[in-house]
Amino acid sequence: MERTLVLIKPDGVRRNLVGEIVARIERKGYLIANIRMLEADRALLEKHYAEHVGKPFYEPLVEFMLSGPIVALIAEGNRVIEGFRSLAGATDPTVAAPGTIRGDLARDQGTKVVQNIVHGSDSIESAEREIALFFGGK
Ligand code: DAT
Ligand code: MG
Asked: pLDDT averaged over the chain?
């Protein structure tokens, strides 16, 4: 069964949106196969966001992800990688479609990195790599 890694970022946890986001994933019909709250450390985030090293928003992104607790979860179901990214909406919350997590629940805060509530893996390879980082390969 296909799996994806979802992160509820510090803005989502701070704003008490964990239940809302988990409910949207469940209502869509995906299974929450595992879930945990954690405070990520820099080493973990550097691995998770390795593809973005050197981009102007990289350091602000890591700092933002260190700014408070996050929730990591594994969602499971046919085509869940594509399906969760569709639920999440576009990266830029200003233009993310209404009805999506980012479109409904986030906006531009004028910060160096866009604060867009959730992360979702973008391919099977990324999903398995990221699940191993956050759940030790389980
Ligand atoms: P996504 O989270 O939609 O997969 P991404 O992997 O390209 O987007 O980028 C990771 C995060 O970095 C993204 O969720 C928000 C931030 N980000 C991406 N592009 C940005 C930009 N041009 N300016 C500011 N922040 C950006
Ligand atoms: Mg991405």
From this structure: 97
